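Quick note —
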Amino acid sequence: MRLHRALSAIVAIATIAASVFIAAPAATAAPASVHEITANWTGSPVPTTAPYGQPVTAEWHVNTNDVDDPYSNEPVENVRATLTVGNGDFTSIPTVCKIYDVTPVSEISADGSTLLCNLGTITEGTATVIQTPVRATSTTGGNLTMSGTATSDSAIAVAGPADPGP
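Predicted structure written out below.
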């Protein structure tokens, strides 16, 4: 009888311990993500020139996707676009770019030529639009140029460069 109770107690403890290990969620790694970035000038009509001081806007499309099949559509942290302008300055940080509760925060470089836009946490399978106002600064008629890349904490590679064209 004592042996039967002891065996019953051992079986009960083993069952409880096994159920704890089975029920505990497995630690998951950050999803491996891939990004795409495209760009175009906005306006109607689309600007073909930008004299000194003229504001123009470029529109960037950042796609965040899962590299695995089947797709999990997991959240991806710190999706970032790094945008540069030649013969121009960024005039403001777009509202879609986070300036709080992200690392790094969105910012414009001291010389105005680079915008780091942290979009925050984005769910895979999502496209995000960034509209970036810039001001032409060439006094000699130089072309206004822009280029951009996209990445995140879990990106397998940096996407881009993309540019809106001449």
